[in-house]
Design brief:
Helix content: 55-70%
CATH class of one domain: Mainly Alpha
Largest sheet: 3 strands, antiparallel
Radius of gyration: 63 Å
Order of helices and strands: HHHEEEEEEE
Structural class: mainly alpha
Strand content: 5-15%
Shape: rod-shaped
CATH topology of one domain: Helix Hairpins
Number of strands: 7
């Protein structure tokens, strides 16, 4: 019994020693691994310290650079502030100068206006003085012509009188009277006749010259008036020409603007539809003028739902006549709809009650309610599914 216990004890002791050895071995391994890890950690710590020192050095350099940069920025900011201050002073001085120049300009404009007014007054006075002078000259020339005419008449009368006296003297000579006295008187009358003829010649020449001058003055006045008229007409023609050019330019601008607007409106449609169809877009029209806006606009009207891409076809109401084939008639604005609850059922576009009809406003379906006197109108929003019970009539013109 003791031997067995001893054997068990020895076995247990052997196992215990083996466990101790295993523990020692594991401990040695762990110590070795810990030493290796410690070495690795020491290496990492050294690396981190070196990296930290490098970062500190870099950060120090960067801080120094930032400090220098900040100093430069501060210097630039100070310079900019000084420049701003200088510019503000220059701006203030410029505004003061502008105000002074405006004041001088206003004063000069007033002086210019005063001088122009004085110049106009002087021109008017000179024109009036010249006109008075011309009128007096014309009046004096007329008087001179009249005096020349009167003097010529007097001289001709005197010439005729002297001619008669000369005839009487000739008669006396032939009758045997005192010839010496008669010759003396005849010589005196002939001398007087010569002087009279010379004066008549001078007066006639003066009359002709004055008359010619008067005619020339009248012609010059006429030509001056004609020239003024032609100048005024030329200025008026130029003004009309400028007005026509301005009007034509405005019309061209309006045409270009309208063309641009049309191009803008149709640009989105040209990419969507082919040129095979002629598109006529009508939007946002009310219930009262639906037929007026759509009637005879196009052979086919396309109606697009507001909240979807579905297009409901519709025929233009060309004739609005009775038809028993209401499902395929061309007399209604909308040919038919499909009910959302029952896709196989067709919903006509017109209803039996003449006071209630389907219209479209801003791409939404509405019921138009009209009172008995057709004066009040109410628009109620509906859905397509609510139209499935609408009844059809043959005559749809009234609705």
């Amino acid at each position: 019994m003791l031997e067995n216990e001893l054997v068990d004890f020895q076995q247990k002791n052997f196992k215990f020693e083996q466990n101790i050895q295993n523990l020692r071995l594991n401990l040695a391994i762990q110590i070795k691994e810990s030493a290796e890890k410690e070495n690795v950690l020491q290496t990492q710590i050294i690396d981190l310290q070196n990296e930290k020192q490098s970062l500190i050095d870099n950060l120090t350099k960067q801080l120094e650079q930032n400090k220098q940069t900040n100093q430069q920025v501060q210097i630039q900011v100070s310079q900019l502030k000084q420049e701003k201050f200088d510019l503000q002073e220059k701006l203030i001085q410029t505004e003061v100068n502008i105000q002074q120049l405006k004041s001088k300009q206003k004063s000069l404009s007033e002086q210019k206006e005063q001088l122009e007014n004085k110049l106009e007054q002087i021109k008017m006075q000179l024109t009036q003085a010249l006109q008075i002078k011309d009128n007096k000259i014309n009046e004096l020339e007329k008087k001179l012509v009249t005096l020349d005419q009167e003097r010529i008449k007097q001289l001709k009368d005197k010439e005729e009188e002297l001619s008669n006296i000369e005839k009487e003297l000739l008669n006396k000579l032939t009758s045997g009277e005192d010839t010496k006295e008669i010759h003396k008187e005849k010589e005196a009358k002939r001398k007087e006749m010569n002087e009279l003829q010379q004066e008549l010649s001078r007066t006639s020449a003066s009359y002709d010259a004055n008359r010619k001058k008067q005619i020339l003055n009248q012609v010059n006045n006429f030509l001056k008036v004609k020239g003024d008229f032609l100048n005024l007409r030329e200025k008026a023609i130029k003004k009309l020409h400028n007005c026509c050019n301005h009007l034509e330019s405005s019309i061209n601008k309006e045409r270009n603007t309208i063309s641009s607007i049309r191009d803008i409106k149709t640009t989105k449609l040209t990419d969507k539809y082919t040129k095979e169809f002629q598109i006529n877009v009508l939007t946002n029209f009310g219930a009262l003028n639906t037929k007026k806006r759509c009637n005879k606009r196009a052979r086919l009207i396309l109606i697009k739902l507001k909240d979807g891409n579905k297009i409901i076809r519709g025929y233009n109401p060309l004739s609005w006549k009775d038809s028993s084939k209401y499902l395929s008639t061309n007399d209604s604005l909308f040919s038919h709809f499909k009910s959302t609850l029952n896709p196989s059922s067709t919903i006509p576009s017109r209803v039996k009650n003449k006071k209630v009809s389907l219209v479209m406003v801003a791409f939404e379906y509405l019921i138009k309610i009209v009172d008995l006197k057709n004066t009040k109108i109410a628009l109620l929003k509906i859905t397509i599914s609510k139209l499935k019970d609408c009844e059809v009539v043959r005559k749809i013109h009234d609705t």
